[in-house]
Amino acid sequence: MLTTLFVVLAISAVFAGVPNPEESKRLMDHLSDQEHFKNEHHNKKFDHDAFLGEDQAKTFDQLPPEESKRRLGIIVDKIDADNDGFVTLVELKDWIRYTQKRYIEEDVDRHWKQHNPDNAELLPWETYRKNVYGFMDDMNEKELNAPYSEGFTYSNLLKRDRRRWHYADGDQDDALNRTEFAYFLHPEDHSGMRDVVVLETMEDIDKDKDGKVSVEEYIGDMYKPEDDEDEEEPDWVKQEREQFTGYRDTNKDGFMDETEVKDWIAPPDFDHAEAEARHLVFEADADSDEKLTKAEIMKKYDLFVGSQATDFGEALVRHDEF
């Protein structure tokens, strides 16, 4: 699931700079596929993706700490647009927006070239299907329909992609131009695709497939208890139950329907880049002046970027900016 994270109280908490586990469940939050909070534990990988873009974050994960810090210093100088020695909330927000736009553009370009090497104006559905799901043509009905089998899983993914393709295909010619292909790959980044993101979210969370989300399904999507089933729920889970009852379930029928899920994952006028910028300032602003010096950022470098000392993962190293 695109992770893949608000009602007035939750928004005010984020805007005040206080990290909130709620952020991790905003499915329209396209800053990272990581969850910002896992069972109340802060996941810095989310911040790394938001600050650097996902590809660059993977690159930093492979660097020795000193090289990671050196490159972070170069980035800080770029963020400080007016060269006054401070990184303001506005400058940090603009940088996060820039890195996310760059990541999406590069991701779309990479996939467009992969599926459309001749750079034709349009990419037909059948071409995409054969590239991604062509191996399924050799599977028999039993392999495709047996519950929990690999074929069954891919069949569901194919159906989801087919529907998302339809939503992205503005002129309904069953072929996508590059702009439409970007909508298909990153529906969370385009307002016109919100309905299909809501549908996908409902399918992921609605385990009993009754077309609505119960409080247990809502909690189960964000909290998995340990082996001890008698363990008392953390306070933040209890607060989430209260959020569901008091705010998410607006018609008070005990469930969230599609409209209520949409209000949860895609609230109007919510700025994810600003919320993340405020979170980073809150965490690193040692003197509480609501702006960051280079020294403050470097002191909290592992909040902004990863390194071999903090993260492990595959990376495609890029040196063009450093």
From TrEMBL:
Record-level GO cellular component terms: endoplasmic reticulum lumen
Keywords: Calcium, Chaperone, Endoplasmic reticulum, Glycoprotein, Metal-binding, Repeat, Signal
Signal peptide: 1-16
One term of GO molecular function: calcium ion binding
Compartment(s) where it occurs, according to its Swiss-Prot or TrEMBL record: Endoplasmic reticulum lumen
UniProt domain EF-hand: residue ranges: 67-102, 193-228
Chain's role: Probable molecular chaperone assisting protein biosynthesis and transport in the endoplasmic reticulum. Required for the proper biosynthesis and transport of pulmonary surfactant-associated protein A/SP-A, pulmonary surfactant-associated protein D/SP-D and the lipid transporter ABCA3. By regulating both the proper expression and the degradation through the endoplasmic reticulum-associated protein degradation pathway of these proteins plays a crucial role in pulmonary surfactant homeostasis. Has an anti-fibrotic activity by negatively regulating the secretion of type I and type III collagens.
Protein name per UniProt: Reticulocalbin-3
